[in-house]
Design goal:
The chain is an all-alpha fold. The chain has a single domain, classed as Glycosyltransferase (Alpha/alpha barrel), CATH 1.50.10. The protein has 14 helices and no strands. α4 packs parallel to α6, α5 crosses α8 and α10 runs parallel beside α12. The protein starts with a helix and ends in a 16-residue tail after the last helix.
Length: 321
């Protein structure tokens, strides 16, 4: 890609982080985060997704990169929202068999932010048959197994068997791709690659399948104005063992950039931005797609700058407090 193309991708990331920083208060955990009738999707889910994006961007950018500083700042904010892990211990007492606290906690653990008391309590619960037999869709179950591992819970891995029960793992007919399967396949790749850190985690047959079919799926999503899913597919493209076709990136990124609002927000779905476009959507309808835009841009930039396709990480720099 040309320098101008790379600059455009960086501008998308910078704009997205500017919006996220300006809206950090909207990620704040409210009083209902620890109530029995609290809405997880409006409390822990946004905060966990903010942490996941920031942990990933931080891992994929050098400390000298302004994107690294932005990601570190927001990751530190998210960790403080959890009482530096103390709220996970309280959640464990309230909902001992809920998996979402461990899934969110494991994001922080992957960045070196840990709470020993919570890990001990979660490990005790994870030894029960009730925990192991919780019924979940294969993609979610794969994510829980990875969350356990990141949180210091080790058990005989069942990844291979579980993977082949997912939509992507079964190598389905390409024409059966739709929105739900699209989100499922992206998360399978996220789990297999530790959110882009280990491209070699994708089996060769899945990597070859995605190399063939991800470009037309991405094109379909872009044509439909599905910006959120398009960004997730771009993350997958930049997380595979072989770098994505430059033509795919050159086609996709200008469309993402044009759909992004001047504030940096990216709507989940809608027409490509132009004069007279719709006003910026509210927080709930654009926070996730804006996070994915930041993640996709950083992951693409990393993929483009890695020499010889080698993926480098920066976790050794330490984690924010």
């Amino acid at each position: 890609m040309t320098a101008m193309d790379v600059g455009e991708i960086r501008d998308v990331a910078a704009g997205a982080f500017a919006w996220l920083s300006a809206h950090r208060v909207d990620f704040t955990l409210g009083e209902d985060a620890l109530t029995a009738d609290g809405h997880v999707d409006a409390t822990w889910k946004p905060l966990g997704e903010l942490a996941q994006t920031c942990a990933s961007v931080r891992a994929h950018t050098p400390p000298s990169d302004p994107l690294h500083a932005c990601a570190s700042d927001l990751l530190g904010f998210a960790w403080r929202q959890t009482g530096r892990g103390e709220l996970f211990l309280r959640l464990q007492a309230l909902e001992p068999f809920a998996t979402y606290p461990l899934e969110v906690y494991s994001v922080f653990a992957s960045a070196g932010l840990r709470h020993s008391g919570y890990e001990a309590a979660a490990a005790t619960t994870a030894r029960t048959r009730g925990w192991r037999l919780t019924e979940q869709e294969p993609t979610r179950r794969l994510g829980v197994l990875k969350a356990e591992h990141r949180s210091g819970i080790h058990r005989p891995e069942q990844d291979t068997r579980l993977l082949r029960r997912t939509w992507l793992g079964g190598l389905p007919e390409p024409w059966t791709f739709e929105r739900s399967s699209g989100y499922a396949l992206t998360h399978v790749v996220f789990h297999l690659t530790a959110w882009g850190r280990t491209p070699e985690g994708v089996p060769a047959d899945l990597a070859a399948y995605l190399a063939d079919w991800l470009p037309p799926w991405l094109d379909t999503c872009l044509d439909a104005g599905m910006w959120d899913l398009s960004c997730e597919l771009l993350i997958v493209a930049a997380s595979l063992p072989s770098p994505p076709d430059p033509a795919t990136l050159q086609h996709a990124w200008p469309r993402i950039a044009q759909a992004q609002h001047a504030s940096g927000a990216l709507p989940e779905q809608g027409p490509q931005g132009d004069e007279g476009a719709d006003p910026e959507p509210d927080f709930r309808r654009c926070y996730h797609s804006t996070l994915m835009a930041a993640f996709a841009a950083a992951q693409t930039l990393k993929c483009l700058t890695d020499e010889g396709g080698t993926h480098h990480g920066y976790e050794e720099q330490g984690a924010p407090g």
